[in-house]
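Margin note from the TA: students keep mixing up input and output lines. Inputs are the sequences; the output is the structure of the whole complex. Example:
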Amino acid sequence: MTAIGRATIEQAAARIEPFAHRTPALTCRTLDDRFGAVLQFKCENLQKVGAFKFRGATNAVRSLSDGEAARGVITHSSGNHAQALALAARDRGIAATIVMPSSAPAVKRAAVEGYGATVIECAPTLEARESTTAAQIEESGAVLVHPYNDPRIIAGQATAAKELFEQAGALDFVLAPVGGGGLLAGTACAASAWCPAARVVGAEPAGADDAQRSFRAGRIIPSTDPQTIADGLLTSLGDQTFPLIMRHVHDIVTVSEAAIVEAMRLVWQRMKIIVEPSAAVPVAALIEQRLDVRGARVGIILSGGNVDLDRLPW
Amino acid sequence: MTAIGRATIEQAAARIEPFAHRTPALTCRTLDDRFGAVLQFKCENLQKVGAFKFRGATNAVRSLSDGEAARGVITHSSGNHAQALALAARDRGIAATIVMPSSAPAVKRAAVEGYGATVIECAPTLEARESTTAAQIEESGAVLVHPYNDPRIIAGQATAAKELFEQAGALDFVLAPVGGGGLLAGTACAASAWCPAARVVGAEPAGADDAQRSFRAGRIIPSTDPQTIADGLLTSLGDQTFPLIMRHVHDIVTVSEAAIVEAMRLVWQRMKIIVEPSAAVPVAALIEQRLDVRGARVGIILSGGNVDLDRLPW
């Protein structure tokens, strides 16, 4: 396990500061009243590319030596990390290659290409993604930037919670969604450094509950056939994120699909901001009372806002 | 004409500060690139009740003497001002009566009642609204708080632009939508006090272009049968807002309905925030190139975010 402490997170914060938004921390009295708590929402949906992923990608890209950077970066992703890496690479003026499954929506491919990256299609299986990526690395020497299982990524994601503590002060709880665990591990490391009294709780869909099962078992239990509308949370924990989560996270809770949709709509309706299903998962945990936050000060990382406006789940 | 200068606006700001959000000023590189300008969006859609109207209503309610306040407040509105006045009154612990046309959507009535106000229905004509309101005032002695034609309201709305100048620094342009003119007049007064070099431009739907016609004619020409999706901009200028607009506003431009919908979707898609059609009108003016902002620093007041999520215009 690579320890990610205060100094590492501060270095990441300094590295990304010229490029990333310092996103607002918003409050909403209606939601406070509903849940009987003081909620502070860290709006990473308002981050560049619409997701916290830009923090980690920028920290990773900016951590490369000039020699490494000259070889370009590569990843396999059809989600927010793909856009994040594409923009982070463009900001540095280096090449980015994104391996995407042929099943990825055209709009996602266009977004990545819009940021100047090269998209390489592969068959829609994990094996094809990994072998296509490996072949590309072999050919071009590009540096792999994994979506979450990388200390530079985790340190970058940690900067969101660092800012939240600066903006909101001490908190009793910090909630974040968990897929591969980069955001949750980073959030927990930041809490450990800046607000050690805060309880850090991960939230995930019941239909993709590998993180809770892994957390309880004390070993990584990969996801098999996850089913959820929260398409950012389909991935399994990695050997870099899991030990940090075991060490610094207090609990992982699960939520129903209905609660995710209800939470998403609640945030849109009352806060006037667009969150994607994955980002609504911690709010769903409040709706389903998966933890007792009454009277507490609660930070919630709203992870992203990338949705298809023509296909809303209500 | 009641002059509304720096001291008046600062008093309003101090009065509302404990109650209103200091909303964020957001930027978006994609939109900057598209319009060739540096845009600063003042997010009044993230204000309490989802609209700038809460500023003016709170300033008006907090300006009342204890004796006036004890009589309660009243207005006629089916829009954002109704919710704003209801919440501002509740914050002060006084009664609010809202006269609404029987044609108002049940959801709007429920929202107002949710803030503790009493709703009185009337026939859906301006005459019925005014006579019902007058009868209520006669009976209860409640203080009328007009949606826009009131210096306290205008001074309250001016605080949004004041904050924007504090957050964004000097601007070359400030754009705001114009209906009854409370927001535009307030914005222009704030610019006159804090950034006199800024050109203040109002934007309205071509289908409700009474403000542009009035501005050009130099006298108030009321709206007759306005047709637009921007339902917050159907009203006509008043004798308090019009002279301030004539004095401090540089131009009023109009936009098409198609551009309003395009602008609304553009903001949702790229900025991940929910704006209502009225709020999208200044962005529509950029889409239709109604003013030349290339290379300029442009402030845009995003006036509100109250939309029916089940009835989106795309």
